[in-house]
User: What shape does this take?
Amino acid sequence: SYELTQPPSVSVSPGQTARITCSGDALPKQYADWYQQRPGQAPVVVIYKDTERPSGIPERFSGSSSGTIVTLIISGVQAEDEADYYCQSADSGGTYPVFGGGTKLTVL
Amino acid sequence: QITLKESGPTLVKPTQTLTLTCTFTGFSLSTTAVAVGWIRQPPGKALEWLALISWNDDKRYRPSLKSRLTITKDTSTNRVVLTMTNMDPVDTATYYCAHTLRELELSSGYYYHHMDVWGSGTTVTVSS
Assistant: This one.
């Protein structure tokens, strides 16, 4: 079955830039979204269509895409950004959604 | 404003069938490209997409669970129902429903799925 691969954890100090990657063979052909999930809460979209930011999401969140890798970039990380982050795209046939395994962002 | 709310039993026994209902407001499941999806999350684990039903009654299921899942919609009452048969303790999880935009990208022939609004989730424990 198709998989999206994320690092299990990323750690950064406040004010630094966090980069969370997501790799998948079909990513050159289809968009990815990124979700933030704080403990005990439902996921929230922070980036959609690789690079677009929904209204209400801080400008420090951005996304990039290159080949089989998409990246969530959080500039000037704040303590409140500590959360789990999931990428999501579609399967290799492009017919149903697939989530990555999630990355725990720790703000030191 | 779009809202979704999941409801169903909090405890089911092994081998039983789970029935979950997603009741939504603020959109119509008759609108082109609109879908409702179900996603679950076992304790301490990753999100796992389960199923979706689209505005035109197109249904998609997670391949590994397809034989156990059924999704239906009632556009008159704004509800989507997911049933999962033969429940097992490994199915213990928080179950979410989400408003999903499912759009065909003509350039690639692939569908783009955007789960932009989620319910708060309902926790289901499978135990005898």
The radius of gyration of chain A is 13 Å. Chain A touches chain B at residues 1, 26, 29-31, 33, 35, 37, 42-45, 48-49, 54, 86, 88, 90, 93-102 (CB under 8 Å). The first strand of chain A starts at residue 9 and ends at 12.
